[in-house]
Amino acid sequence: MSEVTLVAATEAYERAKSGSALLVCAYDSDDKFSNVHLEGAMALSEFQTKLNTVERDKEIIFYCA
User: For the chain, which terminus, N or C, has the lower number of CB atoms within 10 Å?
Assistant: First the structure.
């Protein structure tokens, strides 16, 4: 398992925007995601359906708004 590292919001956004990381809203409610997600983020439910296709070395940034 990889180490957990805190990153600034601006850095997380830049990494997601460049495609070097996935930005995942950690709320388990799609309704809550719809109301508070950041640009470029995917819902936790979407991430869970794509989990088997995510590259093993891809950085994943989870956040709660």
Answer: N
CA angle 27, 24, 14 (to 5 degrees): 135
At 6-38, the pLDDT tens digits run 999 889 989 999 999 999 999 889 899 988 888
Q: Pull the structure tokens for residue 52.
A: 């088997």
Residue closest to 3 by CA, chosen among 63, 59, 65: 59
With a CB cutoff of 8 Å and minimum separation 6, the contacts of 21 are 12, 15, 58, 59, 60, 61
Cα-flanking dihedrals φ and ψ of residue 19, to 5°? Answer: 90, 5
